[in-house]
Amino acid sequence: MSGMTARKKGQVTYYSAEGNQQFSTLVTEQVGDGNIRIYFAGVTGSGAETEGPEGEIPACFSRFENALRETGICDSLAEVDFLEIHAFGTAPKGPNPITDPTGYADAKRRMREAYSKAYARYWAEELPDNGLPARFTVYLEELPNAKASFEISGTALLQRRAQA
Questions:
Q1: Domain count of the chain?
Q2: Among 55, 114, 121, 142, which residue has the least CB neighbours within 10 Å?
Q3: In which order are the strands placed within the sheet that holds 150-158?
Q4: Pairing state of beta strands 135-141 and 80-90?
Q5: Global pTM?
Q6: Residue 13: other Cβ atoms inside 10 A
Q7: Distance CA 87, CA 104 (A)
């Protein structure tokens, strides 16, 4: 588990990047029968080869998978079932919502559609057997990472018995 620290408290384990005192990269909860509920911290798609939802969504899920490997929980996202996904896309930079509220509303609608389509395509191609999350929400907001246009967090379940 290089680069990560783990702190266990009862049924919960907090995994953080070394030196990170602000939040956990992921948190696990033992839920019985060897099953583990996994809470993935929000990660951004910054640094993706392709900008926008088509490039950033795969980059985010890749970061989730790397966290699973680095912590030794499992080797692949194919081993977990996602229960919930929260996605944040950047708000449109234009048109100005005050001077062109209709144009701004249209830009927001197009962005939400682009994120939703890219997510659905990624899910169908990469994770078709990983359950269907009960919630997939795309919020459009300002992100703390100015280089990112997308951030995602999620909850998944590693079912040991289902794999046996």
A1: 1
A2: 142
A3: 4-9, 12-17, 26-32, 35-44, 150-158, 80-90, 135-141
A4: parallel
A5: 0.83
A6: 18
A7: 20
